[in-house]
Amino acid sequence: MGDQFWRIVFLTAAIFNSAVGLSVAFDTSGWAASLGVETLRYDTLYSPLTGMFIVLFGGFYIAVARDLENRAIVVVSTLGKLTAFMLVVHAWARGLAPAAVAALAVIDLVYAMLFTLFLLARRDWPELPPTVR
Question: What's the pLDDT at 115?
């Protein structure tokens, strides 16, 4: 898998995060209900804050797509995607999140796996200076 493939992976992750983040940040429950989709409860403080952080991570994915050497961002992003997946599935298991939201979180798991493959495939990282090890 070449650089172009990985750039597409990170760009699609950015698009996904932007779409999810904006739908979380704004109260889309009326629109979703008209489509027959159950959503999470909207909170006037936490929903926009959460949505902003989801969109912010999308910005990080764009930075990686532009410069594939941003390993630290990919490591943090992988942990973020895994954590998001686990938190949503846990909430679903407790009856706090609809199944549609849990199904959507599976996309986070797929991206976490892709990010992990990226990290494993790019073993040509520059070595850290002795003072940082």
Answer: 97
